[in-house]
Amino acid sequence: MGDFIKHPVVDMPERMPAPAIEADKLVFTDDEKKQMKTWVSRYPTADGAIMRGLWLAQEKFGFLPPEVIQLVANEIGIPYANAYGVATFYTQYFKEKKGKHVLDICTCFSCQLCGGYDMLHYIEEKLGVHKGETTKDGLFTIQEAECLGACGSAPMLQITNGPFVHNLNKEKVDALLDALKEDKIPAFTSVTLPQDEDEMGGNRRSDVSSIESYSVRPVSETLS
Amino acid sequence: MEAKKTKAGDWRSYQRVLLPPVKDLHKLDVYEKHDGYKALREVVTTDKWDPTSVTNEVKKSGLKGRGGAGFPTGLKWSFMPPVNPEIPRFLCCNGDESEPGTFKDRQLMEYNPHLVLEGMLIASYAMSIKTAFLYIRGEFADWITLMEEELEKAYAKGYVGKNIMGSDFSCDIVIHKGAGAYICGEESSLMNSLEGKRAYPRVKPPFPAQKGVWGYPTTINNVETLACAPLIINRGGEWFSKIGAPSHPGPVLYGISGHVNRPGVYEYPTGMLITDLIDEVAGGMRGGKKMKALIPGGSSTPILRADMIDGVTMDADSLREAGSMMGTSGMLIMDEDVDIISWLRRITHFYHHESCGQCTPCREGTGWLENIVTRIDEGKGNVRDLDLLLDLCTQMEGRTVCALADAAAWPVRYTITRFREEFETRCLKEMAPSGGVLETA
Ligand SMILES: Cc1cc2nc3c(=O)[nH]c(=O)nc-3n(C[C@H](O)[C@H](O)[C@H](O)COP(=O)(O)O)c2cc1C
Ligand code: SF4
Ligand code: FES
Q1: pLDDT tens for residues A14-71?
Q2: B430-440 burial by CB neighbour count: b if 16+ within 10 A, else e?
Q3: Mind telling me how many Å the CA of A199 is from chain B's nearest CA?
Q4: Is B16 an interface residue toward A (CB < 8 Å)?
Q5: What is the mean pLDDT of residues B305-334?
Q6: Which CATH number applies to A23-89?
Q7: What string of DSSP letters covers B383-433?
Q8: What's the whole-number average pLDDT of chain B?
Q9: Which of B193, B221, B241 is the last residue of a domain?
Q10: Nearest CB to A93: which of B88, B179, B299?
């Protein structure tokens, strides 16, 4: 029997990788612990808080290696296996180290038809890496994303699970990458409803600094 | 031949109600000045309403779910079992919004968040629920922050929490942040996700009203659906039922994307002529091009060719007759230059990526759909691949735990049957030397 499967059918992650986070850094502050407790108290069982817990850990440590998942599981009070199962189910949890800025470029169907792949390829060329890869300087990871729920302002991208950048074009990408190199993360952008433009003369929100319109979308050069 | 007829009445002078034109409506004080929380106040503090009469009013309104399936909302609420003080009950507001082509719930959260919260509270009252979850997809991080800020303000004002507005009705709202998985929009998957499990859909029955989150009675409604509840209380179910198409009434947010001059989210009554929406509302086709096809309500609703939309209106009946569905009313408009095969290839990639992997027909089927469509797109397919694809669709439809497999199969089935010539032209005329052995990705 021993010879039957010589190699795993799929690439298995290493069972016991060397810890990526040093032991003395692998702790939550009292505030963070308090925050976790609050989340736990909002659900009938502690399990409900695991997703928030993993989010907090990812923001703190940058990604979720096994030792971080273990730490969150201990803090929430659930088995490691459950926490690991959740962490590996969702695409937004990073299981390995990513660049400082993760660019999720949407190429799903609306974006595809409005130049999503053009933008993806442009960014790939500009940064010299393919989707799924990180630049050598560790600044950028590029990923191809599924519909991010902003199809009217396609093509668009999301920066490190945070702000959306709408109505992309090459100039906008250039400016964005320059800004990100200086650690300037764009502010929340409100895309004005067309009916608001007609009836209210512009965006209804007075508290956002960055405003854009839905507008005619470009023609795609490539669809894949 | 019947003349083109809109069911949306005098829609050009339609006054928006979900997103009324009010500056800074997202702020609590502005919302309060515009009848904000008035419906909730009336419901919880006056004798005019009890849970049954609220549910009946929603039934009377004819409101149908805006999350995709179009199930009558009042009826869904009445499926909740009789109250037993020992057994908790839950509401889940579905803000997962991941169906490609859909971007309306996000706009509601951005521009009228309190309407969503008020709707959740009214629904909770109608079903005697004390905890309501608002599940928002993780990608909407900025909107989650916004909703959390506004929720905090609503708590501070006593609109949410213990003894709302001095009444004996108490209800908490918890905002749950997803982390990127389309499948979490499926109601039973959403429940598993809330419970802190891997978000695998559950076998139904038992239905959520019998056995939902943590095994307790649960109702799941879309964000836009619940946002209609305060309007129905304020202005009456009858008023609501007279907006738009009689069989599928109400205001609806049309998310129009693709090759039109003015994409975006528009609020109009249901039953709008598709041609009106494209030519007038969204400013016509970009660059004066001809339209080739459209998707009426998110990626899984069957594609309609330009020659199929004459006189078709945006409501369940008319779209069914035309051979499609209302779905989420996220419309994708495609012009004559679109390569429909490359486009279909991207959709098959989406479903392959998003299948949770529980059921064999879906896990394997979505992969094969992508493989075969890709092979055709690359010009290496055979004509018989088309029938293979259709056969595969048949093997997937209705054989799985959740409807994702159907949602994956329909675009393939209908794009092939409605654009068969184009597919055949791309296919090899002769049998490939490989004898049809597929290269797997
Ligand atoms: C694969 C799949 C994905 C779904 N995604 C969503 C979604 O993102 N948002 C949503 O509101 N409903 C979604 N639904 C529909 C829900 O299961 C459910 O029917 C809906 O939230 C009920 O709300 P409603 O009655 O108000 O429409 C999805 C269904 C399936 C099968
Ligand atoms: S149909 Fe697909 S997505 Fe749904 S439960 Fe089965 S494998 Fe998962
Ligand atoms: S397709 Fe890109 S945001 Fe929807």
Answers
A1: 767 888 999 999 999 999 999 999 999 999 999 999 999 999 999 999 999 999 999 9
A2: eeeeeeeeeee
A3: 7
A4: yes
A5: 97
A6: 1.10.10.1590
A7: HHHHHHHHHHHHHHTT-SSSTHHHHHHHHHHHHHHHSHHHHHHHSBSS--T
A8: 95
A9: B241
A10: B179
Nearest neighbour of B103 by CB, restricted to A78, A151, A194: A151
Q: Which of residues 130-159 of B touch A (CB under 8 A)?
A: 137-142
Is residue B281 included in any domain, yes or no?
Answer: yes
Q: Give the SS3 label for residue B293.
A: strand
Task: List, as ranges, residues 405-424 from B with C-beta within 8 Å of A.
Answer: none
Grade residue A2 by pLDDT with cuts at 50, 70 and 90. Answer: very low
Q: Which residues contact B139 (CB under 8 A, 6 or more apart)?
A: A92, A104, A148, A149, A158, A161, B178, B180
Has residue B41 got a pLDDT over 80? yes
- The reported pLDDT for the residue numbered B433 is 53
Claim to verify: residue B76 and residue B204 sit in the same structural domain: yes
Cβ <8 Å between B140 and A216: no
B288 touches chain A (CB under 8 A): no
pLDDT of residue A17: 80
Instruction: Mark whether B205 and B267 lie in a shared domain.
Output: no
Residue B103 CA, closest ligand 3 atom number: 4
Say whether residue B267 is in contact with chain A using an 8 A CB cutoff: yes
Indicate if ligand 3 lies below 6 Å from the C-beta of A147: yes
Is the confidence at residue B257, as pLDDT, over 50?
yes
Our CA-based measurement puts residue B297 at a distance from the nearest CA of chain A, in whole angstroms, of 13
Answer yes or no: do B261 and B232 share one domain: no
Strands (E), B223-301: 251-258, 264-269, 291-295
Which domain, by its residues, includes B383?
A: 340-434
Sequence ranges of the domains in chain A: 23-89, 101-213
A200 chain-B contacts, CB cut-off 8 A: 21, 23
CA atoms within 13 A on the CB side of B193: 33
Residue recorded with tokens 């068969």: B420
- Please tell me whether residues B331 and B346 are part of one structural domain: no
Are B72 and B205 in a shared domain?
A: yes
Count the Cβ atoms, other than its own, within 10 Å of residue B298.
26
Whether A190 and B139 lie within 8 Å, measured CB to CB: no
Q: Is A108 in the pocket of ligand 3 (CB under 6 A)?
A: yes
Residues B79 and B172 in one domain: yes
Task: Please report the residues numbered 204 through 243 in chain B whose beta carbons come closer than 8 angstroms to any beta carbon of chain A.
Answer: 213-214
- Smallest CA–CA distance, residue A183 to chain B, in Å, is 18
Percent of chain B with pLDDT over 70: 96
Reported as a single tens digit per residue, the pLDDT across B74-125 is 999 999 999 999 999 999 999 999 999 999 999 999 999 999 999 999 999 9
Q: Is B199 in the pocket of ligand 2 (CB under 6 A)?
A: no
Establish, for the pair of chains A and B, how many residue pairs have beta carbons separated by less than 8 Å.
Answer: 204
Per CATH, domain A101-213 is 3.40.50.1000: no
Task: Please check whether residues B185 and B216 belong to one and the same domain.
Answer: yes
Using most ligand atoms within 8 A of CB, pick from B93, B182, B186 the residue to mutate for ligand 1.
B186
Is residue B435 scored above 60 in pLDDT?
no
Are residue B184 and residue B308 in the same domain, yes or no?
no
SS (H, E, C) A76-104: HCCCHHHHHHHHHHCCCCCCCCCCCEEEE
Q: Do A108 and B100 touch (CB under 8 A)?
A: yes
Residue B4 lies in a domain: no
Q: Are B156 and B106 in contact (CB under 8 A)?
A: no
The secondary structure of residue A116, as a DSSP letter, is H
In a domain, B368, yes or no: yes
Of B206, B203, B193, B131, residue with least CA distance to B161? B131
In terms of pTM, does the model score above 0.80?
yes
- Tally of domains within chain B: 3
What is the DSSP-derived secondary structure letter of residue B173?
A: E
